[in-house]
Automatic annotation (TrEMBL):
<dbReference type="Pfam" id="PF02852">
    <property type="entry name" value="Pyr_redox_dim"/>
</dbReference>
<dbReference type="GO" id="GO:0004148">
    <property type="term" value="F:dihydrolipoyl dehydrogenase (NADH) activity"/>
</dbReference>
<dbReference type="Pfam" id="PF07992">
    <property type="entry name" value="Pyr_redox_2"/>
</dbReference>
<protein>
    <submittedName>
        <fullName>Dihydrolipoamide dehydrogenase</fullName>
    </submittedName>
</protein>
<keyword id="KW-0547">Nucleotide-binding</keyword>
<dbReference type="InterPro" id="IPR050151">
    <property type="entry name" value="Class-I_Pyr_Nuc-Dis_Oxidored"/>
</dbReference>
<dbReference type="InterPro" id="IPR036188">
    <property type="entry name" value="FAD/NAD-bd_sf"/>
</dbReference>
<dbReference type="GO" id="GO:0050660">
    <property type="term" value="F:flavin adenine dinucleotide binding"/>
</dbReference>
<feature type="binding site">
    <location>
        <position position="305"/>
    </location>
    <ligand>
        <name>NAD(+)</name>
    </ligand>
</feature>
<keyword id="KW-0274">FAD</keyword>
<keyword id="KW-0520">NAD</keyword>
<keyword id="KW-0285">Flavoprotein</keyword>
<feature type="binding site">
    <location>
        <begin position="139"/>
        <end position="141"/>
    </location>
    <ligand>
        <name>FAD</name>
    </ligand>
</feature>
<feature type="binding site">
    <location>
        <position position="52"/>
    </location>
    <ligand>
        <name>FAD</name>
    </ligand>
</feature>
<comment type="similarity">
    <text>Belongs to the class-I pyridine nucleotide-disulfide oxidoreductase family.</text>
</comment>
<feature type="binding site">
    <location>
        <begin position="176"/>
        <end position="183"/>
    </location>
    <ligand>
        <name>NAD(+)</name>
    </ligand>
</feature>
<dbReference type="InterPro" id="IPR016156">
    <property type="entry name" value="FAD/NAD-linked_Rdtase_dimer_sf"/>
</dbReference>
Amino acid sequence: MAEQTFDVVVIGAGPVGENAASRAVEGGLTAALVEHERFGGECSYWACIPSKALLRPGNLLAAVRRMPGIEAAERLDPLAVFARRDAFTSNGDDTGQVDWAKSAKIEPVRGHARITGEREVTLDDGTVLLARRAVVVCTGSVPVTPPIDGIGEIPVWTSRDATSASEVPARLAVIGGGVVGVEMSQAWARLGSSVDLIATGERLLPRMPAFAGDAVAEGLRADGVRVHLRARADRVSTVDGSTRVELADGGYVDADKVLLATGRKPATADLGVDVVGLTPGSPLTVDDTGLVSGVDGEWLYAAGDVTGRAPLTHQGKYAARAVGDVISAKARGETVDAVPWSRFTATADHHAVPQVIFTDPEVASVGLADAENDRQRVVDLDIAVAGSALTADGYTGKARIVVDTEREVLLGVTFVGQDVGEMLHAATIAVVGEVPLRRLWHAVPAFPTISEVWLRLLETYGL
């Protein structure tokens, strides 16, 4: 068998793996980056990038329709939308990502990697990669298949199919009321599909404040999506050439395509983690430096969705930067000061995770969604300021802050409305920096912008 040795071997060449490898190399180490599909990973080809490329044209068209005096197109041109999406995904060609890795002095390696021993990774062609310092797992996550009778007997869409399809299904049934479910329901409805969204909960986006799920449901219904709440898909079958989704209440939905948007799980099932005493299919539990728990020798690290901590691309990249810095610092003999908020820790994973849901209206949040004890206070407010009125006729939106009343700092912020995603980083800085509200009062929002709502929130709190 061929054998190669590097300081660091990174398994998984998505954005998370790229960051781990590049930080290790910048720290003076050699690194191999192993990928069995496309370099660039899920985000680049099947998730973040293509999904937002599908959503953005519809959001812009809706925004134009809220503005008088502008002649807008009646509908989207699906072929043009697909072409723009494909341009962003390089038509599935990862040559650019491979070239980037080489330019960053990272060794790209194609193959399915499995851990076969301490600091040892073996590819499906028999090649053995040895790591002097560390192996870093950045394999991401895979879709969860729900326990629905008949689900294994018919072809269904996963999120990959939903973001890469180039034909508009006449009828689309979406099972799942989380982020993927709501985003893809709206994207395909605006491209021309007749969409049914089936969700088991009382509202969409159950991890968000109630007003966020309600607002998104209203936005979906305005686009013609039939939203089925408190509905459970019990069985799927083929009836007269269509796929029938039978619901627990006796109703059913017929569709040409069915999208399963029922969550994801860490991709560890075929990674060889059992060799080091871990359970295949389970998340890799890590500390804030990314060191995997339960493995002797301090050589196995992980970052991103595979850890189950904060399954978002930006959080995975953030954690990966810490991992790369930790490994390279230890290799230089430096003491790693793994205290909160150091460059060696992914501290924000615990309570300052930002997220944007790119529906119309958008949902942007960071930190707590609601109060968790009597020392915390929630302030809710309609977004009704000069900036929002100028942004769109009939602008509707809401804002929430969660305040630690003892320290008077923000613990969480949520915005819902058109174009609120770009307001999120200011909120993230306030939460991460624990900016006192009395100091935040002096961060004067520019007039006339939607950010004026910050002033109204602080006034409502009592400043």
